[in-house]
């Protein structure tokens, strides 16, 4: 099977053709936003990091922003810096330049303030957009797709219906030679013994146990029962009683294939197959992890109705909860009928939808512009 | 009539409601191809769980054929099963004194 995408340097293929306006530090968010407002086909990535953090977190910010710049859905990247931040616009620019795509930077403190930086940034980004607009979609095999999968605002229908249907689509893509990325390490707690045996090598299996223990220990260190935070208040209202129950229903969204590698937050895996990125499952941070990992399309399975998209990745929403599908139709793309046949049919319908969306069809989240507030996951204090 | 509750695995000791179920109703379940009836001892909201069997306190509660938690009170067949009578065994900083 095939889709229509935008060719990028080094053999990558985009499903969208945006100019990425990437803020290097929280303090540059406003000017990044003002530039993006003036440029057609701009997608702006804002976050609250890049300063007054310890080096491991600053490294994560640099790595994540570099990987986001590599995402094939961006034709070119403008980095927006304040000037005095601790994240490094140079490291990020050099890293993105290796992708072969155009990357430039503007720095507020060096350019005489907001007015100048917005004017110059807008000029650069508009020139990038003019070049990008000349690109035409071409036919590519679906093996060029990397699908990100996520579940959020889960209830018990997630584990019974929408996650298994998402798993069917994941398996189909991997069978066709493509790749999938999942994560949400917190939501593996209680199901890690199953995933351990899906590791492509014993070392991958051990790594899965290691990242789950690491995430669980962070929660334990707070000295309270995690329940209420995970599963969330809404998950509990939706019938999920424990993190174990949530996890056992959550892991099925990644299908049944071997896990080829476990990657750190912000990393971009090489090759094809199924990858696991170590990240909590909260939407702003985890959708960023999937984008950084190179996903050009994301499938987001939900029970209670999560509306979030992402600035430059189409996010397809799938639910098995009939009440949610009816009440929140402006946010949801696919419905899974009850029963085993429903899951298989919905998985097939989802796969067709993935190819259509990859070829340019807008998701509900894209159509209404929901998803402007992603973030980056860091573990240390603000200092 | 469509199934009103589902048992995910033959090892499970709980079922999940696929409808809003009422106390006193007899709910038909299919477990390993066999039909079974459970009389509900409480209302069960859509998506929530009820017990298929007697579960002693401090015993495993099983769904998907896997342990999803531990009972904190005696549970009998048809009882509502949720946060009031099962606890998680994981990420329990309250029991582990904040130590990793």
In summary, what is this structure?
The complex is a heterodimer of chains A (383) and B (100). With 383 residues, chain A is an alpha/beta fold. Chain A contains 13 helices and 14 strands.
Describe the structure in your own words.
The complex is a heterodimer of chains A (383) and B (100). Chain A is of the alpha/beta class and 383 residues long. Chain A has 13 helices and 14 strands. The N and C termini of chain A lie far apart (50 Å). A 4-stranded antiparallel β-sheet of chain B has the order 1-2-5-8, with no helix packed on it. Chain B has a 3-stranded antiparallel β-sheet with strand order 6-7-9, with no helix packed on it. The model of chain B has no long low-confidence stretch (mean pLDDT 94). The A-B interface holds A 155-157, 159-160, 189-191, 194, 216-217, 219-227, 230, 236, 238-239, 241-245, 248-249, 303, 321, 323, 338 and B 2-3, 6, 8, 16-18, 45-49, 61, 63-64, 66-69, 81-83, 86-100.
Order of helices and strands of chain A: EEEHEHEHEHEEHEHHHHEEHEEHEHH
Q: Return residue spans of chain A where pLDDT drops below 50 for at least 5 consecutive residues.
A: none
> Alpha-carbon distance between the termini of chain B?
50 Å
Element pattern of chain B in H and E: EEEEEEEEE
**Mean pLDDT score of chain B:** 94
Radius of gyration based on Cα positions of chain A: 20 Å
Measured as a percent range, the helix fraction of chain B is under 10%
Low-confidence stretches of chain B: none
**How many helical stretches of chain A?**
13
Q: Which geometry of chain A do the CA atoms define?
A: globular
Assembly category: heterodimer
Biggest sheet character of chain B:
4 strands, antiparallel
